[in-house]
Amino acid sequence: MAEEMDCTLAMIKPDAVAAGKASEIQQLAEMHGFLIIAKRQLQLTTRLAEDFYAEHKGKAFFNGLVEFMTSGPIVALVLSKAGAIRAWRELMGPTNVFDARLKAPKSLRALYGSDGTRNATHGSDYPQSAAREIKFYFPNLQLASAAEDAATAQEYIA
Ligand code: GDP
Ligand code: MG
């Protein structure tokens, strides 16, 4: 099946924003063919960070993750491109910065991250999470593709 134009939810995390890298990361996204179709800069509260990362509740790194994600402003972006979810995760590189430096030295996490928790960027992992995460930050954004993305989630996973 041909890949359709679709969307993902990206975050530039507090470490990268504090380091002054937010503009550079957005420029890199655009250079790689992503359209920035919505953008917000905000600081997460503990409650919002816990909600956003609810799937990780109970894991050893959860409290540290929430503490990190509430430590300063973030930039939330809706990015659009054919195959946006996979393409953005590929540009970000592996979750762990040390893996990223070894396996994908030009990836965003290799370039801008600093350790296991502070890895500079976020990207949705599946169409259903992209739909949820886009709604989390941009509840009023009307995306024709979001519902379709959720509907095709099963096919994507299979
Ligand atoms: P992602 O989708 O690649 O961001 O990775 P996950 O959804 O698995 O984890 C969410 C975030 O939690 C990651 O981006 C890291 O910031 C953090 N994280 C994940 N796994 C670990 C871990 O094993 N140790 C630590 N310290 N942080 C982690
Ligand atoms: Mg994830």
UniProtKB/TrEMBL annotation:
Sequence similarity: Belongs to the NDK family.
Residues of the full protein shown: 1 to 158 of 305
Record: active site: H122 (pros-phosphohistidine intermediate)
Keywords: ATP-binding, Kinase, Nucleotide-binding, Transferase
Reaction catalysed by this enzyme: a 2'-deoxyribonucleoside 5'-diphosphate + ATP = a 2'-deoxyribonucleoside 5'-triphosphate + ADP; a ribonucleoside 5'-diphosphate + ATP = a ribonucleoside 5'-triphosphate + ADP
Protein name, entry field: Nucleoside diphosphate kinase-like domain-containing protein
Organismal lineage: Eukaryota, Viridiplantae, Chlorophyta, core chlorophytes, Chlorophyceae
Domain Nucleoside diphosphate kinase-like: 5-145
Residues involved in ATP binding: K13, F61, R89, T95, R109, N119
